[in-house]
Amino acid sequence: MKKRMTQHEEFEIMKLVLDKFLWLGFGIMAYGFYSLITQNSEEFLKGLLFLFGGAVLLILFMVLIIKEYEVVK
Known about the structure:
By secondary structure, this protein is mainly α. Helix content is 78%, strand content 0%. Helix 1 runs antiparallel to helix 2.
């Protein structure tokens, strides 16, 4: 017989997993910002794309959270 989780337990597990993805998005954005600062003008686009990609990743996970855990009164 399968054990059913409560809504609170499910939310706590989701927070643990999601935290890793948020760190990944932040890390990508930090690398992009670092590239923007340290690279020459030829590599500017690469840093900008990493910065943009990290922002898109964070927005994607934000949308998934809102869609999955919509609060219904």
